[in-house]
Amino acid sequence: MPYFDAASTEPLHPAARSALLSAFETGWADPARLYGSGRRARMLLDEARARVAASLKVRPDELSFTASGTQAVHLAVLGALSARRRAGRHLVVSAVEHSSVLHAAELHEREGGTVTTVPVDLRGRVDPEEFAAALRPDTALACLQSANHEVGTVQPVAEAAEACRAAGVPLFVDAAQSVGRVPVPDGWSLLAASAHKFGGPPGTGLLVIRKGTRWRSPLPADEREGGRVPGLPNVPAALATAAALEAHAAEFAADAPRLRELVERIRTRLPETVADVEIVGDPVRRLPHLVTFSFLYVEGEALITELDRLGFEVSSGSSCTADTLRPSHVLEAMGVITHGNVRVSLPRGATTADVDRFLAVLPETVTRLRKSAGVI
């Protein structure tokens, strides 16, 4: 069954599986202990941290392993806001941030802070000048994702970072969709990512806080991970994350042109074979493996169910609220069709034959659902 939902979770990479199984034998002990098995676990944890840091081009002591990408986001945003309360209580976010960022912003507002939401254009991209104009003397933190998780549009992180630097405001970048796939421009102060997005184990996130960035944990004190993340570090998962990131990044760099061609085939063929379809997202400044489109007169959930019956696993609507059946906040912010939405995100190993078969069955599936709904 072709799996076309890599933006949600990339299948576990064989290199990660091998590292995980090996580390269960040697890295199970508490790395804070001084006896032999504890020292071995600490060496493995340090090795994993150094390897991931090298892949991200950061210092090992700037990187912490978290229990999820969401936890990394919450720690980054709330920790930066906590540390910079004297500077102000104003937060800047884009309208298309992941729900984890927006939920942190909602909590900040409930606790007396203020939030400015920067809009996006029809392609889901923030205007760098509008983002810069949202910064104020009392801005404590600005947040801009590296690339959108629903439509694949790449955001102007470099320009936003320059504006933040000039204003003396730290920039947080949610890089979950980019890490392991495309480089993230430099200049940011805090970054979060999630291992399962690049073929690592679920339940492992990455939090990077650059040297010189003010940050204070929003949680009770804990001695683990430099005081940033509470609880026992998952050493096997950290090693598997390092292995997955190294392997996936190398493979994706080589395979990205082929995946981009497959996505372009979908973007070109669909309007030729299906009426009333809108291809969503920036056609050029986008992730190479992801494409989103919306159909009039079709319920997204019904379409996903039917495609699953036919052997294709794709996602619909908001990737973070699909289970609630609420319209996607990303698509609403873009001002595009919010129903009948399908996101295809190709994993490693996706074939031309699978994509061609998908393009063959999709038009008749849409027609069948429209007929059953009585609209044609």
How is this structure best described in words?
About 1% of the residues have low confidence. α2 runs parallel beside α7, α7 crosses α10 and α8 crosses α10. β2, α4 and β3 form a beta-alpha-beta unit. The strands form two sheets. Strands 1-7-6-5-4-2-3 form a seven-stranded mixed β-sheet, sandwiched between helices. It has ten helices and ten strands. It folds into two domains: 233 residues, Type I PLP-dependent aspartate aminotransferase-like (Major domain) (Aspartate Aminotransferase, domain 2, 3-Layer(aba) Sandwich), CATH 3.40.640; 119 residues, Alpha-Beta Complex (Aspartate Aminotransferase, domain 1). It is an alpha/beta fold. The protein is globular, with a radius of gyration of 21 Å.
Question: What's the number of extended β-strand segments?
Answer: 10
Q: Determine the CATH topology of the largest domain.
A: Aspartate Aminotransferase, domain 2
User: What is the correct CATH architecture of the largest domain?
Assistant: 3-Layer(aba) Sandwich
Overall helicity: 40-55%
Q: What spatial form do the alpha-carbon principal axes imply?
A: globular
**Alpha-beta classification:** alpha/beta
Question: How far apart are the termini?
Answer: 30 Å
CATH class value of the largest domain: Alpha Beta
Helix and strand pattern:
HHEHEHEHEHEEEHEEHHEH
Q: Indicate the mean pLDDT.
A: 95
Which residues form runs of ≥5 with pLDDT under 50?
Answer: 318-322
Radius of gyration: 21 Å
Number of helical stretches of at least 4 residues: 10
Fourth CATH level, the homologous superfamily of the largest domain: Type I PLP-dependent aspartate aminotransferase-like (Major domain)
Instruction: Tell me the strand order in the biggest sheet.
Output: 1-7-6-5-4-2-3
